[in-house]
């Protein structure tokens, strides 16, 4: 979209691109490309509003909303506040401006994920950060050297995914005296947009050297 030829695309083609849920571009970069296109195609008149309304502003980081989007005048102060409220709101409200994600079937998109560990009294938590949002429907946990291999009473583990790090969807959970995921390391679920994967377990911690694969499988 950075290529000059993008400005020569028709209204119909640009509108079709904006309707897609799968685009390998950050929303702020998409906004900048669309703003340039609208500036270069002033003859479309009121259709500009239709194009701008297809931008998913809630997916743009707040600092970019203020520093890049607001100065263009495309959204006014009240609209900007509405966008921020949407970002801070409930998942139902956020569905008005769903995120876009990258679709790369068969590729392990977690190969270079960054892992952050946190610990509390009940369980340890590993958060895998993919860096971008991807469509996935399968996760395989590579588990080695549990810190605590067995408890005298049952413990709960869970695997969850999120597109924004705020709202989480649990895709698998198990309760046992030993790690449930040791014998159930592969998890399939309905295709989702995912940027963060959270593994919670009392059996593993940062010294356990665990990793995972995240893939969009297609039949």
From TrEMBL:
Residues 2-69 form the BACK domain. It comes from the Eukaryota. Gene3D superfamilies: 1.25.40.420, Galactose-binding domain-like. GO terms for cellular component: cytoplasm. GO terms for biological process: adult locomotory behavior; circadian behavior; modulation of chemical synaptic transmission. This is BACK domain-containing protein. It comes from Anopheles quadriannulatus. The lineage of its organism: Eukaryota, Metazoa, Ecdysozoa, Arthropoda, Hexapoda.
